[in-house]
Amino acid sequence: MLNKGALMRKRYAFVLIFGIGVILSSLYLYRIHSIPLSEEKIIILASYYYDISYDYIVFLKPNNVYNVSFLRAGEGIIYRRITDFIDFNMSYSFGVSTYGDGAIRYVITLILESPAGWERTICNISEGVIPFNGKEVRIIEKFKINPNAYWDLIEAIEKETGTSSSKYTIKIVPRIHVYINTNVGLINEYYSPELNIVLDESSENGDIIIVSDGNDSGYKEIKERKIIYKNYLISQRYLSYFLISSLSCGLVYFLLTIIRSRPKVKSIEKTIGSINDILANIVEEPLSKEGYTIVRVSSLEDLIKVSDNLLKPILLAKRENVPYGEQIFTFYVIDGSTRYEYEIKEKVTRE
Fold this sequence. Notes:
The protein has 351 residues and is of the alpha+beta class. It has helices at 4-34, 151-161, 232-261, 268-274, 300-310; strands spanning 38-60, 70-72, 78-79, 83-113, 119-145, 167-182, 185-191, 195-203, 206-211, 216-229, 287-289, 292-296, 315-321, 326-335, 338-347. Strands 1, 2, 3, 4, 5, 6, 7, 8, 9 and 10 form a ten-stranded antiparallel beta sheet that branches. It has a five-stranded mixed beta sheet with strand order 11-12-15-14-13. α1 runs antiparallel to α3 (232-261). It is rod-shaped, with a radius of gyration of 58 Å. It starts with a helix and ends with a strand.
């Protein structure tokens, strides 16, 4: 059987163990609750792309500049006055990473534009519908542009509008509509990449034609927003509740056993204060003499308390202590064989 000291040490050890357990379980509780129960994820179901590119050859009139009949893209300055026509080759590709079924509709429009503010649609160069059944399709269109074929029209419009310019733009505008059903969603896209042919009569290189870079490409994804629920966190949260509650109960239990096992010491001041109105202080332990006991109190007030409690009168005896020149007044209360007394000494002055 454990003695009292060993038992207390054991209780303190359990308090330490359960205290550490409460701290660790609190940290676990905080960590588990800091993780959200659900999470939003973006899932890529499929991807698709498009690519449009232009290539061209400039066919020339007989000339003294190049002394050749054609120029390929980027081979030199295109002078308008020796240009016969420009042969374009447009290539459009569309692909999707999953199976799709639908169609691609397109219209290629020719537009004449002036920086003075007017614009005129000339014609549709080409149009068509290409069925899509699979993952990829490619459209190739060839057309010719005579940049000198529109000067009569330009002159007529400027006469009507009262405008004039030294620079005009022939715009080739393909309008492409992709409508494809896939097994993960619908693709419904419109594309309109422009190719500009600028006729510039006032450039530092003279009367020239500038063909812009009409190449364009893009990449997109079919996405799905999905909410993922972390059900395993619910059981872990319940586990954290159980741990912190059980460990806290254990800690409280052992703390209470330690507190209850401590000796109960009541404050002497509190005890004295509760009976102070009936308490009579004494100056020394009671003196036992033959046949009676003397109890010396510390003040006359204390003797009055004794008298009141015993319902006994206070008696007074006077005597002189000649050798010391004192007169002694003794107040006392007699209760059977017990005598309660208080002495007052006073110096005697002789004349």
